[in-house]
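go over both lines:
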Amino acid sequence: MWPLTFEERLAQWYNLRTNSNNLELESFLTQVHDWWWRSPMVGRYLNWEDHLTWPGPWDLLDENRYCDLARALGMLYTITLSAHPDIENITITQSNKGNLVLINHGKYILNWTPGELLNIDSTNIEITRQLTGAQLQQNLGYNT
C-alpha cells in the first residue's frame, strides 16, 4: 500500500534509500522499482518540455501525483540520493517504450513493467530525450 500522508511517504522513502545501500545492485534496484510502482497514478502530470521546473525530490513526494514520467523521476531521485556504490551512470529517458530510467549505461531499465528489471541489450529502444541525474541536480538545485 502506498503511504497516505506526506510524513509516511517521507519516512518510507528515507528507509528505502538508507536501508538498500547494503544490498546487491539488482536487489536494490528491484526494491526502488517496486516501491515506485505502488505510487498513485494520474493521466498526465509532468512534461519533458518543462524539465527545468520539474519538482525536486521532496516536492514530488509532497504533491503525490504520478504519471509514468513522474514515477521515473521518483526512481531516479531515489537512486541518485541513495548513492549506491555500484551505480556508475543514471539517466531518465524518453523513448518509444515510454519514460524509462537507465542504470549503468543502460544495463538495467526501470519503469518498464512492474516487478521486472530489463537489460537494454535485449530490447529495441529508440531514445528521444535524456537527462542524467547530475543534470537534474544542477537544473533543480538539489544536493545529494
